[in-house]
Amino acid sequence: MTNTEIRPVGPEPARTRRNRGTGRTRKASESTATATTTIRTRGTRLLALLFLAPTVVGIVVFTVVPIVGSVVLSLFQWDVIDDPRWAGAANYREILTDSTVLVSFRNTLVFMVLAVALQLLIALVLAIAVNGRMPKWLRSVFRSAFFFPLVLSAASISVVMKYLFNQDFGPVNWLLGTVGIPSVPWLTSENGAMAAVVLAYVWQQFGFSFLLFVGGLNNIPKEVHEAASLDGASGVRKHLAITLPLLSPTLLVASVVGIINALQVFEQPYVLTAGGPGDSTRTVVMVIYETAFEQLRFGEASAVGVLLFALIMAVTALQFRLSRRYVHYQ
Predict the structure, then answer these.
(1) How many other C-beta atoms are found inside a 10 Å radius of the C-beta of residue 209?
(2) For residues 230 and 232, what is the distance between their CA atoms, to the nearest angstrom?
(3) Which residues is 274 bridged to in the sheet?
(4) Helices then strands (H, E): number in the chain?
(5) What is the pLDDT of residues 63-95, one digit of tens each?
(6) Residue 147 neighbours by CB distance under 10 Å
(7) What is the DSSP string of 10-37?
(8) Residue 204 CB contacts under 8 Å (≥ 6 apart), including other chains
(9) Rounded to whole angstroms, what are the CA distances from 1 to 8, 121, 250?
(10) Is the pTM of this model over 0.85?
(11) 212/123 Cα distance (integer angstroms)
(12) Dihedral (C-alpha) 217, 220, 221, 226: value to the nearest 10 degrees?
């Protein structure tokens, strides 16, 4: 047998004990730091949720719930008095064969094209003019004056416009008469009524697009225009080749908001022409209002509203699709 020498194990070196103690302390510190970071992250998330809650609740209550309710109601026939009755797709078949509904969609699309095009053109021209060389106080005056109609009631503006466009004693026809233009039947002819509604709408709405364009123009570096001037580019050439491409993101926002608002126009045609003469200025929202609150056909009115919502979503999606070609980001 081989004798195995057994040596007593001495005490652990002090350096090893110190290293192990330091390792435990480091791990404890890291755990504490992780716990603190987790608590702070949770607190930040909770605070963010608290700030977002009013907006989210408002969107759900006033946007999501009404949309879902309209879709559901469009499948029923309901006159408020009797209980709702299941109709399925019958409401949609009825409104798609109703000439008044079809004409209202056509009028709304024509109004959208005319109003948005004129609104963007006027707002862009005025924004370029105000952004030019002029005293700051005068620029502030113009900005306030052009934005002021937007804060007024559309109904009150329409009442004033109805007086201005009156064929017999309206100031517009009086001014036209001073330059030899005969009296125009603004509110009693199909083309004149649509023109009056478009002008009244644009006068109130262009201030929003104007402020967007002013902000967009201020973000364009002045060095770009100065370099173009040194190359001999004229004012019109600079705006077409430089201003419009650099302003294209703002144009996209202004056009999207303008089209959505124009497709929902109601006050101006309702007050100015009541949809007439005939149905020449009757819009989709007017049909929804008349069908629901005058004829008590809430199911059919909801179906028209669903179709209008689908139209707005389709047009907006098409705009963003086409924006990939003409929107240039710096």
Answers:
(1) 28
(2) 5
(3) none
(4) 15, 2
(5) 899 999 999 999 999 988 888 899 988 999 999
(6) 15
(7) PPPPHHHHHHHHHHHHHHHHHHHHHHHH
(8) 149, 150, 152, 154, 157
(9) 21, 109, 96
(10) no
(11) 9
(12) -70
